[in-house]
Every structure is written in C-alpha cells, then in structure tokens.
Amino acid sequence: MVHLARHMQEKYGIPYIHVSYFGIQDMSRALYDVAEFFADNEVLERTQSLVRQEIQRVMPEINRYRQDLQGKKAGIYTGGAFKAFSLVDSLRLLGIQTAFVGSQTGGPEDYQRLEAFCDEGTIIVDDANIMELVRFAQETRIDLFIGGVKERPVAYKLGIGFCDHNHERKISLAGFEGMLNFSREVHATIMSPVWKLIDSRNRQAGRN
Amino acid sequence: MNPQSTIAVSTRNPCRMCTPLGAAMVFSGIADAVPFLHGSQGCSTYIRRYLIGHFREPVDIACSNFGESSVIFGGWQNLHTGIHAVIEQYHPRLIGIATTCLAETIGEDIPQMIHRLEQELPEDGPILVSVSTPSYQGSHSDGFHRAVKAVVEKLAQPGPAGRHINVFSGMICPEDIRHLKDIFAEFGLQATLLPDYSDALDSGIWNRYEKNIESGTPIESIRRCGQAQATIEFSATGDFSTSAGETLLRRFGTPLYMLPLPVGVRQCDTFFERLSVLSATEIPARFTAQRSRLIDSYVDAHKYVFGKKAVLYGPADWVAALAIFLCEIGMVPVLCAAGDHKGTLQEHLREHLPGTMDSITVVEDTDFASIEQMAAGLKPDILIGDSNGYKMSRNLNIPLVRLGLPIHDRIGASRMTAIGYQGTQQLFDRIVNTILEHQQDNCSIGYTHL
Ligand code: SF4
Predict the structure, then answer these.
(1) Most buried pick, B121, B125, B349, B373, via CB within 10 A?
(2) What value of ipTM does the predicted structure carry?
(3) Across the interface, which of A159, A170, A197 has its CB nearest the CB of B265?
(4) A92 phi and psi angles, rounded to 5 deg
(5) Which of B46, B63, B71, B146 for a ligand 1 pocket mutation test, highest count of atoms within 8 Å of Cβ?
C-alpha cells in the first residue's frame, strides 16, 4: 500500500500520510493526522468530538474484558512489521503483555523501533519458522497467539488461544468498532473454558 | 407481583408427554414383552401416534378399551378380556400394564386384579407387571423410570453374586443404546441394560409381517439384576422414588452409582472411570482417542460458541446434563426449563456450576407458553429440546437443535445421539453448525468460508 501511495505521490504529486487504523490509539492518531493535514479548525474540532464519542462508546466494554485479561501473555507473528506495533498497543489496552513479537518481512530498523516500543523483556523475533515459534510460545507460556490462519491449528494443538490477523478475516478489526471486535475475540479465545480440559502435561505448566 | 398472578393458570402447551408413554417404551424394550394400557383406547392411540411419529416404526400397544360401563363398574372385565386376547395373539412372556388417567381416577385396584389374573393363568403364563402412571402425576420420563422400577421389583431375584452390572439409562435414543452396549463390550463388562428398545423401536426392513416382540432386555437377565456387582443409573436429580437402583440397593445391597447422563467430556469421564473401576481394566484406547478428538473439536470451535446463550427444555435429567455440558464448552444455558418436577434441578446445577448461576434461570414443572415468554426476554442464540419447541423457535426466529422426544418433524430421531464421547461429538457438531448456519444465513455478505 505504501508503495502505491509513494508511486502516486511521485507520479501525480498526490500527498500521502502513513497511518494505522488498528487499535484505539492508532485509529485516533490516524483521524487527527488527517484533520491536521487539512489544517482546518472546524475539521479538527469535529474530529476531536468524534474520537471522544467513540472512545466513550467502546471503552466500558473493553474495560470489562481487561478485568479478565489483565496479566495474560501473547505472542505475535505478522506478515509485515507495521501491524505488530498496533497489535502490541491494542493488547496493552486489554492488559495483555506481549511476550514475543516478530514478522516475516520486517527489516532491521523495524526491529529496532519495535524493541523500543515494547516492554522490557519482550522477545523480538526475526523471520522465524514454525518450530521456533512453537518453542517461543512454550517457553514464554503465552495465552494467546496472533498470527496467520495457517498457524491457527498449531496454536490450538498446543492449547493456546488464537486470533488471526490477516486479509482472510471475516470480522473486521479496523477502527473503533474493529477494536471492539478484536477485544471480544481475544477475550473469547483466552477465557474459553475448553482449555481446562486439556491435559496439563500438554499445556505448559503454571497456567490455568 | 401483581395479585392476580397468584391465581392458578392452566398449563398451556405442556413441556412433557403423558406418563404411560414412558412406561410403554420400557415394556417395548423387554424381550417377549407387550405393553398394555389399562384405560380408554384414545390413550393408547395417542401414545402410539407419538411413538410412531418419533421412531417411524410400528408400535404395538394393547389396551383394555374402557367404555362407559367400565368407568361405572370398574375395568376388571376389560382387563381380563384384554390380557387373554394379548396372550392369544402374541404369546408374550411378560405383559407390562400401565394405567391411564381414567383408570387411576376411578380408583382401580390393579394389584388385586393382577393377583386374580395370576391365579387363573397357567404356570407358564406370562408375568404380569403393573405400574401406576396417571398423567396428572409426573411426566413421560417419570413413567419410564417407574416402569423400570416396577419390572425390577417384580423380577429381580437373590442369588450368588456375579460380576455383571445393571444399567438403567433412562430415556435415550436407540443409537445411544447401541453405543452403550458397545462400550460395555469393549470394557469386557456383562451389562444388563434395561430397557433395550434399540431393535424393537429401530429395526431394519422386514421380509414378512412380524410382531417383533422378541428383541429387548432378556427376562432372565432382569431376574439376575439382584445378583449384580453394581447398578449404574443415569439420573442427575437423584429421585429415589422412581429409582430401580434404589430397589436393588434396598433389597439386595447392590451398590448404586447414580451418575449424570454421560454428555460432555467431564460427565463422560465420570462414567468411563466408573466402568474402569467396575471392570478392573484401563479405559480402552478407542475411547480415550474419542475423548481426545472431542476436546480437539471443542478447541476448533471454541470461538464460535463462546458466550452463546442457550435455552434448554425437556426432562430435568436431560436439562441438567446438557446445562453442564454447555458450560464446559463456554456457552451459557440462560434458561434451564424442566417439564417435569424433581425439585432438585436448581440445587444440582448450583453444585456443579459454581459461580455461573447468576446468568442461569432454572424452572421446573413449566410449559411452553412460559418458556417462550422467558426466552423472548433472554434473547438466546439457540434452543435445544424436542420438536414441540418448534413453534417457539419459529416465533422467536431462534434456531432449534432437536434432541429428546418427540422429534416428529425430522428424520432420524433414533440417531440423534448425545451419549458418550462419540454421541457428544455428534451433538456438539450439531450445535456448532446450527449456530454457524444461522449466522451465515442471516449475514448480508454470504461468506463461504467461516
Ligand atoms: S388421558 Fe391421561 S393417559 Fe390418556 S392420553 Fe391423556 S394424559 Fe395420557
């Protein structure tokens, strides 16, 4: 997408700004960036009131989920590195700590920025294969794995909750509504009682 | 509360069927036995009609065909004539006599009549078992349990203790009965399953007209119930008054294990672990594999069902087992409605589902009008119960997973299993797929992958 935008800027002189629509923080930032771009006070005011309204609308439900999810741990493995930032941030909002995060196509500077962005102790993973991901997942005892649909059955076999984050999704994750959807899904997969039926020997010790 | 609500309201669309229906099913599941209703013909017609609609099999139920004079002078003559006619036609080894409302209302002294009949029947004549089943006392499920108890009371004999076990499963579908028999065989357990209508009410194509009374629990096996090493009885609500296991415990000291219906992983575990102890063998690998696959499927579907609200209705034992199963997979049984009255459902669920009772309403002795009213306010995602809930499903536009009896608007009532890891798997798949189908059909986009 950035490639396309850059191309359009070069060829037609159409300016672009780089935003993420995922997560409350990034979504609000994106709206403000757009408003600021136009440098129109009225637009800015309307944006502020919209963001305020939306946050007031979604936060009570998100706060309810956070009560259950506080202290849980997640692992993230995305295609591009850009998404990972928004995910770490959104999980934070839910009280979930990111134990490891990585991507397939991230470059060295992405990882530097990620490292600075994440909490201390978060493992930054560069282009890992499934065996390595499994090892990280087990060592860090995560409750949730965020990755592509192909990783889903592996997470499930290991008794780990899962949320996919790619183009195949049917339930949107963008915007404020998307954050609600994300929170509901993360809450469902982590809090489902089915994990209790999995033999504790399969499941990493120390989790419930 | 509005003062008028204390005025008795008549039952509107009962959530149960008549008591002798359950008794008739039991007698159908005993080898060489014929069910016989003492009362008016309409009762047997009604019961046969329901059983035929459900099982889609021929169902023979004899009847003493009360007329006006029997109501006034008593039904002895009719009973006498009827029993002799049945003997002549079927040559049964046992006749199971269940009373109807009318016979009970006029106060027929059935035990005395049976005594008189027994005196005049030849030595090798049929055994007569009677059970009191007025429909104003209990439900089809109670009638079922009472009939099992009556049979055991009449037939069980003392004798040298054996290794075999008794299993009183309550009302389950023929495929579930077959599966139970399979399970016992795999454990190497000799089990007397009473009743066993897995053939009588679910047989193959006939080559010629048959009376088909030969199949079912052998009478000899029932006689040996008092010599068993233990009894397993599926009952969540622990009603001793209708428990055949209680009879055996009291009369012969046979240990009684009242277990919940084995639906869902945990309730199945309880059952399989008990069998493992009784057979002194490990749980066969086949079942541990089924268990593991079942859990794997729970995981695969956990997000589809999490937090989904269900309304359950039917006999209390089933409602109890289903509620516990649903909680195990992350669903919320917002309304647990028993058509019969045990008085212990709430307590049972509270004990097994600690911390979740705030979101669960439990009612007993209820009817469909009340269930629908409550369900409308609870906005459930799914209903689980028999076909009589279809109107509610239609009115509220909430999908219905059919389970129980009667199921007369679908094919395969005999194969709608729920028992054991294997039966649970089928039920689980049906529940998840019904939820997915409803979502898919009601979504404007029409996704083909979910
Ligand atoms: S009269 Fe009683 S026994 Fe007969 S069909 Fe009606 S409810 Fe059943």
Answers:
(1) B349
(2) 0.89
(3) A197
(4) -55, -45
(5) B46
